[in-house]
Amino acid sequence: MSLMVMKNYPPEFKADAVALALSRPDRTITSIARDLGVSRETLRVWVRPDTVGARHGPTPPA
Known about the structure:
Layout: H1 11-23, H2 29-36, H3 40-56
């Protein structure tokens, strides 16, 4: 049985990781995550909020 360990990353690290992923469309999330030492899913979750509005436009008011 494997235990999942939750790591806390500084906000600056997250911001830099997202900026790197968004600035390198020639690279996959998997390869960038590997280089940064985070899981692919972790990086994908960080990047997703920044890309939702970019792809689909602003979210309409509720």
